[in-house]
Amino acid sequence: MVSPEGLWDVVVSGRDVVSGFPVDRGWDLGGLGEVSASGVGGFLYGAGEFRRGVLRDLSA
Questions:
Q1: Rounded distance, CA 7 to CA 2, Å?
Q2: Residue 56: is it exposed, middle or buried by C-beta count within 10 angstroms (0-12/13-18/19+)?
């Protein structure tokens, strides 16, 4: 989902929106099996594109 309307559609319909671990986060996916036995979760779409310093830049 990429909009508030999409969120409400998921809530109203009761749809399952879990997915496998994203590959664009720089995580050790092999080691995540120790953290999550299911191998799935809810993840923020596009977070891999987020510029890490942006919050630091905004707080200055």
A1: 8
A2: exposed
> Please, are residues 12 and 4 in contact by the beta-carbon 8 Å criterion?
no
**How far apart, in whole angstroms, are the C-alpha atoms of residue 20 and residue 40?**
4
> What are the pLDDT digits (tens) for 1-60?
678 888 889 899 998 888 888 877 777 877 776 666 677 777 776 766 766 665 565 555
What residue type is 2 in one-letter code?
V
Q: How far apart are CA 38 and CA 35, in angstroms?
A: 9
The pLDDT score that the predictor gives to residue 17 is 85
> From CA 45, how far away is CA 22, in angstroms rounded?
9
Given the structure tokens 């809810």, which residue do they identify? 42
